[in-house]
Each structure stands twice: as C-alpha cells, then as structure tokens.
Specification:
Layout (H helix, E strand, L loop, with lengths): L2 E5 L2 E5 L5 E4 L7 E3 L2 E2 L2 H21 L5 E7 L3 H16 L3 E7 L5 H13 L5 E4 L9 H7 L11 H9 L7 H12 L8 E5 L6 H8 L9 E5 L6 H5 L4 E4 L17 E4 L3 E4 L7 E4 L4 H4 L5 E2 L7 H20 L8
Parallel strand pairs: 5-15, 6-7, 6-8, 9-10, 9-11, 11-12, 12-15
Antiparallel strand pairs: 1-2, 2-3, 3-4, 13-14
Length: 332
C-alpha cells in the first residue's frame, strides 16, 4: 500500500510495490531501497477493530472487561506509559482505573493492594507499572499477581506455561512481534529466527512462542546475547532477524543477509541537534542501510511499539472471556 511513514528521523514514501524513498529534507537526493515496511500502527489498528467487536459481544452479556493499573511513585515515564495504556483501554471500551500509590509505599502494603485486586471480579487484568522504587521487589510483585489476571505476563507461572506450550497469557511485545509477522505474510513456520537479546520480557518469551509446535510458530530459533561469539556470522543465517538489544543501530547491513525479514524492537534516544527536543528515537537496527538488503523491516517508531499496548488489550479481553467461560473471540 502506498503511503508515508517517519522512521529514524527520515520520511519514507512507501510505493505500491513495497519500494521506499527516504527524504531527509525536501531537497535531499532520493535513496531508493527495496524493503517493504511492516507498519505496526496499521496492524495494531486491525487488531483493535477485532477487539472492539469482542468487547461489544461481552458487553451484550453484561460483562465489561476491566484492567486495573497500579502506579507507585512519580516517575514521569511511568505516568506517561500508564496514561497511554488507559487511553488505549478507552479506545476499545475496556474499563480501566489507575490506582496511584506514593513512592514510599511499603512492600507488604503493595502486596496487600494486589491481593485485593486479585479478589475483585470487576478486574480481569492487573498491571503494576515497572520500574518500581528501589526498595520494592519487582519479582515479588510479579509473583503476587494472580496468573489468571497477569495480562502483562510477568508472573513466572505464565512464563512456565508458555514454555510448556500450555494456555497462558503471552508477553505483550513478543506476542505483538508474532502478530506482525503473521499479518504481514511472514509466517515463521520452518524459518530460522535469530533473536538478538535474551531479556525476560522480549528475547526469552519470544523464543518460547516461536518454537512451539502450533500454527504461527514452528520456527527454528537461535538466541544470541552478550556472550555470543561472532554475532554477525549467526545473524547472517537468519530468515527472520529480531533485534532486541537496547543498543542504537547495533545491527548493521553486513550482519543481514539479502532478503531477510528484520524486526527492530529497539527504542533508543540519540542526540540530534537539528531537533527542537535535542534528540530523536532510533532502533537497534541501522535502518537506512539494512532496508537496502532486507525483504521487509519494521520502522522505529511505528513498528513494534504500537503492538505492545495492543497485545495488552488483547490479553485483557481474553482474560474477560475466560472469566465469562466463553471461547476466545466468541462471547455470544
């Protein structure tokens, strides 16, 4: 589909055949590349449309999905993240409430609050915004959330069920990556997926999702990390390359084979004197150079990012459907 998208500081015009023209400014020479943009915003909206229909069917049964946010302290980024998640809930008619606690809240007090939310049937999902103040244990908080309400998929129970291939909430960013691949025509089945990064919220759960013996998975997965020797030799083997390293432009063109699909999870702030803010956001992939070799690529911003919150909504609707005893997506 033809259109325009901003990625890593450039405006890209996307042609009907998937070709792109990068324009740094109106008089800059055009750089023609061949990669197809995987538009996370468009895929996220497609999923939200499906979720609106599922929510409406639940409401017809007298049940409104509910998501409780717990926000401890005054971290500006956390406040912004929770606000955007609450707005996303409103967008598809999920009821939400933000329960704010002072930064000095004690561990037992916070766990008691989580216990009350676990017991309240009005809330199908409970999310404690991370990071927490340093005196609080994030691991203890994650374990305290009822696995049936753990829509952020941080409880080790859900991670264990995922690894075993049993029904579980999927971590939001990895689930979003899987949907991006499937809905853009890049089924991972039979493909070699190389994941750069082994975090508990992206690398490990994504590997577990894509290795399962089920539709939308069945990939051969390699996980690379800081201890990997000759990283480029491994990334060049990837049919699908996922960069989740937290390092700006760490994946360069010489690390990507021709025709690979590249998913950039990175979200890094780098200085940019030309911007009023003094910075701009870039991914873990050298977008402009890699886009000349890849068959398809996600931009930053506008790629994986929009999918994370959307899959949080997905998990919340799924939790409500389970609470109602109805099949996923079939609330009638």
């Amino acid at each position: 589909m033809a259109g325009r998208i901003v990625a890593q500081g450039s405006v890209w015009t996307v042609g009907r055949a998937g070709r792109m023209l990068a324009l740094d400014h109106p008089r800059a020479p055009e750089i023609q590349v061949t990669a197809t943009i995987i538009d996370g915003r468009a895929v996220a909206e497609e999923i939200r449309a499906e979720l609106r229909a599922r929510v409406e069917r639940l409401r017809e049964r007298g049940l409104t999905p509910g998501l409780a946010f717990v926000l401890v302290g005054e971290n500006p980024a956390s406040i912004s993240y929770v606000r955007s998640k609450a707005q996303a809930c409103e967008d598809i008619a999920i009821r939400s409430e933000t329960i704010r606690q002072p930064a000095e809240t004690g561990q037992e007090e916070l766990l008691a609050l989580i216990g009350r939310l676990n017991a309240d049937p009005a809330w199908h999902g409970v999310l404690v915004q991370m990071p927490l103040p340093p005196h609080l244990s994030e691991d203890a908080v994650a374990r305290a959330i009822d696995p049936e309400k753990d829509v952020d998929a941080l409880n080790p129970v859900n991670l264990g069920l995922l690894l075993r291939g049993e029904p579980a909430f999927l971590s939001c960013t990895p689930a979003g990556i899987q949907q991006l691949l499937l809905r853009s025509g890049h089924d991972p089945a039979g493909k070699h997926v190389v994941i750069c990064g082994r975090s508990n919220i992206v690398g490990k759960p994504l590997a577990a999702i894509l290795m399962q013996k089920r539709p939308g998975a069945n990939a051969t997965v390699t996980v690379c990390h800081t201890g990997t020797r000759d990283l480029a030799a491994i990334t060049r083997q990837a049919d699908i390359l996922v960069a989740a390293m937290g390092s700006p432009r760490a994946i360069t063109a010489d690390m990507v084979r021709e025709g690979a699909v590249v998913i950039d999870v990175g979200n890094n702030r780098v200085p940019d004197a030309s911007r009023k803010s003094g910075f701009r956001m870039v991914g873990d992939v050298d977008f402009e150079a890699v886009a000349e070799k890849a068959a398809a690529i996600t931009p930053v911003p506008g790629g994986v990012g929009p999918m994370t919150v959307t899959m949080l909504l997905w998990n919340t609707v799924l939790a409500a459907e389970r609470a109602a005893g109805v099949e996923e997506g079939r609330a009638s």
